[in-house]
Specification:
The structure is a single chain. By secondary structure, the chain is an alpha/beta fold. 35% of the residues lie in helices and 20% in strands. A hairpin with a 2-residue loop joins strand 13 and strand 14. Helix 2 (62-80) crosses helix 4, helix 4 crosses helix 5 and helix 11 (322-329) runs parallel beside helix 12. The longest helix is centred in the first third of the chain and has 19 residues, at 62-80. The protein is elongated and about 80 Å long.
């Protein structure tokens, strides 16, 4: 049953420490067999010296006995398997090898459990060795928008805009911390007592934030903003009701005619999703450079350069800030600059770029209205240490930004584009704006969902009309605005 298995030659790989409690296993392409110990030696390692009562998993005691049994089998697996060879297998082959060995350990240990419990145990151990442990089932679901882990015993998810408590739990805070380390190390970052806050990302672009003890009092806190496997398009946002069909056409035109756009909204309102949707209308021959704290934008154009900030090392050296990236990308011959999130002095550099021939640049800002968005950008520039008169900063904002798109998450969990607002210019010391599209809330339906509609404010020729004419889009823009004017708010269905 545990005889030697044949091995094939393979290039040397770095050994994973055999004493690791939660081994992180890199995956390569060439499948080879995994050598394990010969039967007598393996039995000597994994068979108990004293025959204790065989653990029996029952539904009532699963939360205690299950994790005790899993820990015992996991320890035996780590002693029995060659992790260096396992690292060379593709994911499916590695998972099959682990399942075979775990089944043999269960038989030798005389563990009594049902078939369903054994399958759960096999899946959990495979996820611990090859993936992100208890998080794997949640990461596989495409209907989850956020995963929020508050210590080892509490995991919440957001589904359809509502937060729910799940039954997912970790063995202890150390297992959770090991998984956090595994996630952030994949992008060259670290999280520990000396650096307890970390922003990172998963391979699919999902955004990750970790805050560890001693800052997180009740154990590590892990937050994952999941990305959908199928990337959302503007047409899908229209079908979901985030914007009306005519409003969607206006946003498409704004993206095509190279307006400088700022997307404003609160946390979790859908700013990055909308930014991804609008960038789909960038011409495929344009050179686009993105600057982000954690790379999550999913542009579909062929000529995209993605830049990501870097935290300081253990000695406090080598940090690369967002402002460093934005200033550097001006030397990279960009046609459009896209800043994932403007939250510091890089606001000044982005406005400079918008003013110096990089039309069509975009960014997102945390704010609750278009007017607050302008005030926040001014505040970011002021806090950045620039000694400029307030009027000069406002003039720079007024001449740089063309359109502000406001997105909001409503109280029923739905996300809506509530304003499409033009920046018109200056009147005295005040930046003037005009709304092109507004969202009117008129009530709720029987299920508690908010009912409303998008409407045009009746402005026939926006400020970017000449820009639309230059790109040959003025007729479509006029038709979309005229069609929206006749839409009147209606009551709940």
């Amino acid at each position: 049953m545990f005889g030697k298995r044949s091995t094939s030659a393979a290039p040397s790989v770095s050994l994973v420490p055999q004493a690791a409690v939660e081994p992180a296993v890199p995956v390569a392409a060439a499948p080879v067999a995994v050598p394990v110990l010969a039967e007598p030696e393996m039995k000597a390692r994994i068979e108990p010296r004293v025959e204790p009562p065989a653990p029996v998993l029952t539904e009532a005691r699963k939360s205690d006995d299950y994790y005790q049994t899993k820990s015992m089998i996991f320890g035996a697996l780590i002693e029995a398997i060659d992790l260096a060879q396992l690292a060379r297998l593709d994911p499916d082959s590695a998972r099959d090898e682990i399942r075979d060995i775990v089944n043999e350990i269960i038989a030798l240990k005389n563990v009594v459990m049902s078939i369903a419990e054994q399958e759960d145990l096999l899946d959990d151990i495979c996820n611990d060795v090859l993936g992100y442990g208890p998080l794997e089932p949640l990461l596989a679901r495409d209907d989850i928008a956020d995963i929020m882990v508050n210590g080892a015993d509490k995991t919440y998810i957001e589904v359809a805009g509502k937060i729910q408590l799940t039954s997912v739990r970790f063995r202890d805070n150390q297992q959770l911390m090991n998984i956090c380390q595994r996630i952030v190390s994949q992008v060259g970052r670290r999280v520990d007592e000396s650096s307890p806050i970390c922003d990172a990302r998963l391979p699919d672009g999902s955004r990750v934030n970790v805050i560890a003890p001693p800052l997180a009092i009740d154990g590590p806190s892990l937050t994952i903003r999941k990305f959908r496997k199928d990337k959302l398009t503007l047409d899908q946002l229209v079908r979901f009701g985030a914007i009306s069909p005519d409003g969607g056409r206006i946003l498409e035109i704004i993206g095509k005619v190279r307006c400088n756009v700022v997307i404003s909204g609160g946390t979790g309102s859908g700013k990055t999703t909308l930014l991804n949707c609008i960038t789909q209308f960038i011409e495929r021959d344009e050179r686009v450079i993105t600057c982000e704290d954690a790379a999550e934008l999913q542009l579909q154009q062929p000529h995209v350069v993605r830049l990501e900030t870097r935290p300081p090392n253990l000695e406090g050296q080598g940090q690369v800030t967002m402002r460093d990236l934005v200033r550097n990308c001006l030397r990279m011959r960009p046609e459009r600059i896209i800043v994932g999130e403007v939250r510091g002095a890089e606001a000044f550099d982005l406005l400079q770029a918008m003013n110096t021939g990089h039309d069509g640049s975009m960014g997102t800002v945390h704010a609750n209205s278009p007017r607050e968005c302008l005030s926040r950008i001014e505040s970011l520039i002021t806090m950045g240490g620039f000694s400029l008169p307030s009027r000069t900063v406002k003039e720079m904002i007024a001449t740089s930004i063309d359109v502000i798109i406001q997105v909001s998450r409503l109280r029923d969990g739905s996300r809506r584009i509530t304003h499409v607002t033009e920046v018109v210019g200056m009147e005295g010391d005040v930046i003037t704006t005009q709304d092109l599209v507004l969202y009117d809330i008129v009530g709720e339906d029987a299920s508690g969902r908010i009912v409303g509609s998008h409407r045009s404010t009746g402005i026939g020729r926006p400020r970017f009309w000449e820009r639309a004419r230059y790109f040959g889009e003025e007729q479509r823009l006029a038709a979309a605005l005229d069609a929206m004017e006749v839409v009147a708010p209606s009551g709940p269905a």
